[in-house]
Amino acid sequence: MAVDVGQIYAERAELQNGADAGALAAAQLCASSAGCSQSSANDAAKALADDNARDGISNLRFVDLSVANKVTVSTSTIDGTSNAGFLTKMFASALNTGPATVGATATAALVPPVAGGGFPLAFSNKCWDLTGTSPTGTLQKISWKPGITCTNPSGHTIPGGWGWLDDPDGDCEAVTSIGNVAGSDPGNNKPTQCASVLQGWISTLASGEDLEVPFPVFDTATGSGNNGSFHLIGYATFSIEGWKFGQNGVYEYRNTTAALGNSKLACSGGPDRCIIGKFVKYVSIDDFEGGGTGSGVNLGTVVVKLIK
Predict the structure, then answer these.
(1) Which structural domain, as residue segments, surrounds residue 262?
(2) Tens digit of pLDDT for each residue in 237-268?
(3) Alpha-carbon distance 290 to 54, whole Å?
């Protein structure tokens, strides 16, 4: 009996691992720009369920896509040699006990992040332009000073400030959460503590890779200078092409007409501060940093999580 119970527990653990992995894989596929069909979700879940079985095969009972932004996967026993739907070599059969079949179920959800830590810059929701069917928005220049673009309804971002967020630790990271306010770092001075981060951005773009960075998004901005704050509603991912956060060095990159081939996207000289790129849909299987509660606005950036 002890051997049989151990076998059942081991089988159950493999099936749960397979259901968990399958649900995450199918949910990630369904959230991608390509989307998913029932057959493609089944294939994704089946592959991960099999990979988590010692004999390389599991019975995929079903993949349920009926609930929006959720995927439920159910697995059960199958013998890799005989294809029997039950455990073999059960010692309890000597006592006329029948064969055992076990199963597991997991549900993965696509949820907007509610908190995070990242580059200390916030975007107005007036800049965000993704639609439900489009994987990317329009290539645009988001400019704060001068010639502020896509501002909040009051017609400005923060008087005496730019879009910078407070960075009390000086580590080029602002920890934020939706539903709360984030403090403003006044002025349009370049973030000197971000030089190494910006150099990493340059290296990514120079290698031909996409540079996709999540940013907090606000719907209203109040106050001025050090007393300014942003009310955050969610997180959106911006595929960056260039920027001008200061003068020279890593603080301006591919921000000219010559680099972009479009004068409307280029940053002007002097005090102009801007970032160039487009909003994109983004799926992460890793949770964002920080705490936070509640639910954020879905701005095309979601986290795949196991919820049961």
Answers:
(1) 115-302
(2) 999 999 998 888 899 999 999 999 888 899 87
(3) 36
